Amino acid sequence: MSVTERGAQVSESSIATRPAGRSAGSPLTTLVGGGVTAVVIGIVAFVIDQPAAGSEPATVLGDTGGSPPQAGQVPPDIQATTVDGRSVKLSDFVGRPVWLTFGATWCGDCRSEAPDLQATYAKYESQGLVVLGN
């Protein structure tokens, strides 16, 4: 018997057959394929989650214990170093509104909030808003 497909004659004898002992979709094949897929996904996730080259972990200074912040409560006096090497403390901005933000260039949510952060700063800069972050 022959079948015509797109103008070509195909005979049953020319169709490849599965080797003896191999069945389609055996449980072992499915298990091995799933395991290999899981390992590949794990390796890719591990590689993607690594910090950028040349980045350094943040060093937390001072007391990190205590209760969570409450509205109206004086915050702890944290200290940080600016990109140009100056040291700043939160107490340097007493009486001014301060927006603390911590993000990263590889963080999609952080990048998506950047335009809102810039617009808010532009709107309230004249009222003394300070934006501190990494």
Radius of gyration, taken over Cα atoms and rounded to an integer in Å: 30 Å
Strand proportion: 15-25%
Distance between the termini: 73 Å
Question: From the 3D coordinates, which CATH architecture of the domain at 79-133 would you assign?
Answer: 3-Layer(aba) Sandwich
Q: What's the arrangement of strands in the largest beta sheet?
A: 1-2
- Computed structural class: alpha+beta
Percent of residues in helices: 25-40%
Description:
- There is one protein chain.
- This protein has a domain at 79-133: 3-Layer(aba) Sandwich (Glutaredoxin), CATH 3.40.30.10.
- A hairpin with a 5-residue loop joins strand 3 and strand 4.
- With 134 residues, it is an alpha+beta fold.
- The chain has two helices and six strands.
- It has helices at residues 27-48, 108-124; strands spanning 2-5, 8-11, 79-81, 87-89, 98-101, 130-133.
- The strands form three sheets. It has a two-stranded antiparallel sheet.
